[in-house]
Amino acid sequence: MTIKLNYMKTLGLTIGLFFMFSVANDAEASPEDKTAILEIIAGTEHGWENGDGAPFRDNFLDYEGARYFESGGSNEGLDDLVTNHVEPEKDALEYLELNFANIEVHFEHGFAWAVADTEVKGKVRSSGVEFDKTGRQTFLFRNVDGVWKVVHTHSSSRERR
Questions:
Q1: Residue 29 — very low, low, confident or very high, per pLDDT cuts 50/70/90?
Q2: What is the Cβ-side half-sphere exposure of residue 52, based on CA atoms within 13 angstroms?
Q3: What does the alpha-carbon distance between residue 115 and residue 22 come to, in Å, rounded to a whole number?
Q4: How far apart are CA 158 and CA 155, in angstroms?
Q5: Which of 97, 118, 136, 104 is nearest to 38 (CA)?
Q6: Which residues pair with 134 in a beta bridge?
Q7: What is the layout of strands, in order, in the sheet containing 73-76?
């Protein structure tokens, strides 16, 4: 019950943030802000594909309560995400191809969010099982001392139809 309540609180916070910031004020953001966020997303894509935790450690804000969701799974904190998810996939997968497309970036008072279409393909080394999925990705960002940092991610995907 506690897990379900915590998930519902997190889901409610995410939905609340999107509702609260649904009218984006892009006038506050410079072209450099959008470029910085797109570079972070590209680095994240590279990090997942190569089992490289460096882009995550460089661009994600490490704070108590950080949570990252992927297709029903959850990592609590930056170290958990990197050491128990990103880096182990390098050895667990024969290959991983990730593509973020149709990226939309929105800004509001030191806060930003991006949504993207995702395609993820790979092959599990131990079983030889291949997967080909599509879905959606959400990134939440906070501007900390003039630098954009990821504070939350949520992805959901399913087998390509």
A1: confident
A2: 12
A3: 13
A4: 10
A5: 104
A6: 119, 158
A7: 73-76, 67-70, 147-159, 130-144, 111-124, 93-108
